UniProtKB/TrEMBL annotation:
GO terms for molecular function: 7-hydroxymethyl chlorophyll a reductase activity. InterPro entries: 4Fe4S_Fe-S-bd, Co_F420_Hydgase/DH_bsu_N, FRHB/FDHB/HCAR-like, FrhB_FdhB_C. One of its GO terms (biological process) is chlorophyll cycle. It comes from Celeribacter neptunius. This is Coenzyme F420 hydrogenase subunit beta. The lineage of its organism: Bacteria, Pseudomonadati, Pseudomonadota, Alphaproteobacteria, Rhodobacterales. Coiled coil: none annotated.
């Protein structure tokens, strides 16, 4: 591709998923992540940026290219599941269900606080330097802030799920500069970007100790949170804190404004049903909802209906030898309580994400028909999940997508 074509593609808001890797590669003063209210964080490339940097930004952008064969191709990869499960959910070396032994982490965590407990184990027992992740921006609670957490209390301050734009990879510079290996926690797309960046920058690869992700249907834009607040009459002015869930599983959308007590609004399922309708087009084109490229990925155990009494637990999936060792270490050292889980629990908990993965094959076909670009995926079988869809779903993903592209003028670049 020509340089102009590269720049056009990477700044195309229809494809970007806010990961922030291009900002890390080019440096944040050359590429700022700007919050566009109705789509999410998008990179703003400054004028006169060196052509070599633009090429590197394209090389790390996971929505341009991602290699999904890389974990399965490793010499030390030993699958603990059958081929069908691997096709559906990516590399797997072990599945557990469990929760953080630290009761506060478990209670405040998104499902069972497992991700945070694993990160804490890495910091305290494996001598990792810090964890790169995101959490509520204390100065602007409807937004998120990338941070490096060094202690249990710093990790705890960012526990839980943020259903609003985040760009964890814009903090990879802090990992690269760290004196020791770090934990990187991010959405599936952020871990795909981290893998691309590690391949390009050996100095970063040396400092990424372990990657943690979670099951994720991608983020709605800031506009969605504003609208949800408006539904409940919550003014933006004076907002001091906002959480989407947690404090019990799955928890409630909750806000607190200056001088007021916390206000509990909709339960998570209802709030998410509202928020997800705002997700941008790029979210519907991204097939990895399972953190397939992370060493460890956690999800909600939706195979069980939360009854409000359950303090919460997480499905914990190891994808590499390292991921498995870390989970076993965290259990042995008392950070996690977890027991091996059967594959059906994963399938039953995440049916929606698997259907989405199949639908992406049909959506990509519609893109091709319309002459629109697609992400280049290596080692990713989307056709098999598409074949498992019902005839109605197959039609919706192909013909329905074509209709949406035409109706919304998506073939035109905004
Ligand atoms: C946008 C989004 C979509 C999700 N979709 C699904 C889904 O489809 N199915 C499902 O089972 N679960 C979904 N989840 C929930 C997720 O799977 C749970 O967070 C997971 O079970 C881990 O829970 P935990 O208690 O172990 O994590 P915790 O210990 O609470 O740790 C959560 C970690 O995630 C990080 N984090 C939170 N929000 C973001 C964000 N927006 N971007 C990057 N990092 C973030 C935090 O920094 C923290 O380190 C989603 C979460 C998010 C943020
Ligand atoms: S997906 Fe990530 S790397 Fe690609 S343009 Fe968006 S922020 Fe940059």
């Amino acid at each position: 591709m020509s340089l102009q074509a590269d720049l056009k593609r990477i700044t195309d808001t229809r494809f970007c998923l806010s990961c922030g890797a291009c900002s890390y590669i080019c440096s944040p003063d050359k590429v700022a992540m700007v919050d566009i209210d109705h789509v999410g964080l998008r990179p703003q490339f400054s004028d006169g940026i060196a052509p070599a940097l633009i090429r590197e930004a394209c090389a790390v952008c996971p929505t341009i290219t991602s290699d999904y064969g890389q974990l399965k191709d490793r010499d030390d990869y030993v699958a603990s599941v059958d081929k069908k499960t691997e096709t559906n959910w990516g590399a797997i070396t072990g599945i557990w269900e469990g929760y953080a032994n630290d009761e506060e982490l478990r209670f405040k965590g998104s499902s069972g606080g497992a991700l945070t407990a694993i990160a804490q184990y890495c910091l305290e027992q494996l001598d990792y330097h810090a964890a790169l992740h995101t959490g509520e921006d204390p100065d602007d609670p409807i937004r998120n802030k990338t941070r490096l957490s060094h202690t249990r209390d710093e990790l705890l301050a960012a526990v839980g799920s943020r259903y609003s734009p985040a760009s964890v990879c814009d903090g990879l510079g802090g990992v690269e500069a760290a004196p020791k290996p770090c934990v990187v926690i991010g959405k599936p797309v952020e871990i795909a970007a981290t893998r691309n960046a590690m391949a390009l920058r050996p100095a970063l690869a040396e400092k990424v100790g372990v990657t943690l992700s979670f099951f994720c249907a991608e983020t709605p834009p800031t506009k969605a949170t504003r609208r949800l607040m408006a539904e409940h009459g919550v003014p933006e002015e004076g907002l001091e804190t906002l959480r989407y869930r947690g404090y019990g599983w799955p928890g409630y959308f909750t806000t607190r404004n200056a001088g007021e007590a916390p206000r509990q609004h909709w339960i998570y399922q209802r709030a998410w049903a509202y928020l997800q309708g705002f997700r941008p087009w790029s979210a519907h084109l991204w097939p990895d909802g399972a953190g397939e490229l992370a060493d460890i990925s956690c999800g909600d155990p939706w195979y069980e209906e939360p009854d409000g009494e359950n303090p919460g637990f997480s499905l914990i999936v190891a994808r590499t030898k390292l991921g498995k060792e870390i989970i076993e270490g965290a259990i042995a050292k008392g950070y996690l309580t977890a027991t091996p889980a059967e594959t059906w629990k994963l399938d039953k908990s995440q049916e929606g994400l698997l259907r989405k993965k199949g639908s992406v094959w049909g959506r990509r076909l519609a893109h091709r028909v319309m002459g629109m670009p697609n992400t280049r995926f290596k080692g990713l079988d989307l056709f098999t999940p598409w074949m498992a869809l019902s005839p109605k779903e197959k039609l919706a993903s192909t013909v329905g997508t074509l209709r949406r592209i035409l109706k919304r003028g998506l073939w035109k670049r905004a």
